[in-house]
Write a structure and sequence with these properties.
The chain is an alpha+beta fold. It has 2 helices and 3 strands, in the order βββαα.
Length: 118
């Protein structure tokens, strides 16, 4: 399973605002056979140097690194929780790793924190 975010279009809506269209995809595969796909599309309004962002996007299909980090972080922060809910409804595993819980057995010494005594 892999997931990613893709910016599909950036347009200037004001001097300091740009409309950023995106697609978030969580792709489930087993031995190259597709099992499921969660795709979320949307638009965010980014505030900053909108003219520069649109200029860089139009010229090279790339965003300045600082803007790209901010935009993709917002996309992932908002879409991953939604994808977890959708995955549960579709009976797919969540698109994030689940933490493993390890409870020590009674009577077996576990790793202790603190100073070592010899």
């Amino acid at each position: 399973m892999d997931h990613n975010s893709t910016v599909t279009l950036i347009t200037e809506i004001a001097d300091r605002q740009a409309s950023v269209d995106f697609r978030f995809t969580a792709n489930y595969r087993a031995s190259e056979a597709p099992i499921g796909l969660i795709q979320i599309e949307g638009t965010i309004v980014w505030e900053g140097d909108a003219k520069g962002l649109v200029r860089d996007w139009s010229a090279a299909g790339q965003m300045p690194p600082e803007a790209a980090n901010e935009i993709h972080t917002v996309i992932m922060t908002n879409c991953i929780p939604e994808a977890v809910i959708l995955a549960r409804e579709l009976r797919l595993p969540p698109p994030i790793p689940i933490p493993q819980v390890n409870i020590p057995q009674p009577g077996k010494p576990g790793k202790q924190r603190g100073p070592e005594v010899m």
